[in-house]
């Protein structure tokens, strides 16, 4: 198969290590990966702020960049959910629909398409998993604790394949971190308090690292950790799965 690697703009600008790890991990697993160099923002920030009518240029460019791949994979649940639910183009409606059906968040692609059962990875640290809301409630990569159903977590199942890792149990495992994209700007005080609560749960259980599928959430918590003078670090799940 040939996969188009979609790297969200904030990962490209601030956390390129997550993008590189995603590429290397997929290649280790035998996937042919292509990175379209003309890709830009998917349009999610505008759409989330009530300006979806201004995203037509983003939609058209995304379709042009990714229309010819078997699958599209991205290390970001929120951006993948945006493309799945909102990608549209009046000039190419069928192509847009096809793309929406073949884009995957990285851990979902590894578990659902590649059926990964083993990994040659090593990460001997205590790690807390942050279940991002878009991935959990929109893409269903993990179960929600308020529902009476068998518990599952695709990110956790992959992390359990990593040698030496010590996954901690949180008090509130699927609580929002408060980032919410533009929410952290328009509702700064609420966002910051939610982030502090989310960070405290990890600190109380002795985490050395906080990981997840969305660097946006991790970026929000990283700012709080740094302001608190904490030595706890954030790391995208791709970097752990690719470690060693």
Automatic annotation (TrEMBL):
GO cellular component: cytosol
GO MF entries: oxidoreductase activity
Start and end residues of each Cysteine-rich domain: 3-84, 127-221
Residue stretches in coiled coil: none
InterPro entries: Cys_rich_dom
Superkingdom of this protein's organism: Bacteria
Name of the protein described by the UniProt record: (Fe-S)-binding protein
Species this protein is from: Mucilaginibacter glaciei
């Amino acid at each position: 198969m040939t996969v188009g690697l979609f790297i969200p703009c904030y990962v490209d600008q601030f956390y390129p290590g997550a993008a590189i790890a995603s590429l290397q991990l997929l290649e280790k697993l035998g996937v042919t990966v292509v990175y379209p160099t003309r890709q830009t923002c998917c349009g999610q920030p505008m759409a989330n702020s009530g300006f979806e009518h201004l995203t037509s240029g983003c939609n058209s460019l995304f379709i042009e960049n990714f229309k010819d791949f078997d699958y599209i994979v991205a290390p970001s649940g929120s951006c993948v959910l945006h493309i799945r639910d909102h990608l549209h183009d009046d000039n190419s409606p069928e192509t847009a629909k096809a793309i929406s059906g073949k884009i995957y968040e990285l851990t979902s692609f590894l578990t659902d398409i590649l059926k990964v059962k083993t990994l040659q990875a090593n990460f001997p640290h205590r790690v807390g998993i942050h279940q991002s809301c878009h991935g959990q409630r929109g893409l269903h990569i993990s179960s929600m604790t308020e529902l009476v159903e068998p518990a599952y977590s695709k990110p956790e199942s992959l992390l359990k394949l990593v040698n030496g890792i010590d996954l901690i149990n949180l008090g509130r495992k699927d609580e929002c971190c408060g980032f919410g994209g533009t929410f952290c700007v328009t509702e700064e005080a609420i966002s910051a308090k939610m982030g502090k609560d989310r960070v405290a749960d990890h600190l109380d259980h002795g985490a050395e690292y906080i990981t997840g599928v969305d660097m946006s959430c991790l970026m929000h918590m990283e700012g709080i950790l740094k302001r608190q003078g904490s030595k706890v670090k954030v790391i995208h799940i791709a970097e752990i799965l690719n470690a060693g």
